[in-house]
Design a protein that fits this description.
Length: about 270
Amino acid sequence: MSTATTDTTPTDTTPTAVSARAAQGPRARSAVLRSEFRLFRREPGALFGVLVFPPGLLAILGSVPAFRDTDPDLGGLRLIDAYVPVTVLLPMIVAGLQAMPPVLAGYRERGILRRMSTTPVRPSALLGAQMGINGAAAFCSALISLAVGRLAFDVTLPRQAVGYLLALVLTVVVALSLGALVSARARTSKIANAIGSAVFFPSMFCAGVWLPVQSMPTTLADIVQCTPFGAAAQALSQAAAGDWPAWSHLGVLAAWAVVLTGAAARWFRWE
């Protein structure tokens, strides 16, 4: 009798238990997403860096009279026109290198990811929530920068909207994959901050924060355009002017997206 009773008791691999876990999975992932969103809203550094800093920088630059004058070196564009794509890229760089890596590395450091592996929701749900929240925040900031440029400084909205959106999507994938790679290699949140900061400033330079890519010497511009954010800056500028982004720039973005995503998946550890 005792043997029969034991044999009829559902185990972890019975259809009943599997169905229960499947039912709990979507609810658990939704709970993780809501929790991570609340934590993101309470983080002033991330909110400022992703949502406030890029449009604020555009507003400050646009208030300088010289930035509103046409520049022959930019093909008759104004400096403020050239800086809108830059401020569109900035929140993606901040989200990928400053906001996300310390959080994920901190979760691993404190054993949160390891403990999640024993629950119905896998640790990948936490990674997905972080990437989704930071990516959405970066997109919102990009839209705010476009609105500030248009309403405050009469910057023309992107004339090639499809090409502009494609370049934005590829850039977000690259930025978040780069952040996931930093998170994969950093054992602690402090190390993640250090690595993120070391990559952050070269990325800003390549995006054209200090000097638009169009104004760089030819040799330097050719080198910068081989980097993901240099290629993104050029692709966004071309789409903003009404041209389809050069396939070379889109190809650079796609190649970096594949390489960084593969490297992050290869080296990412939950423990």
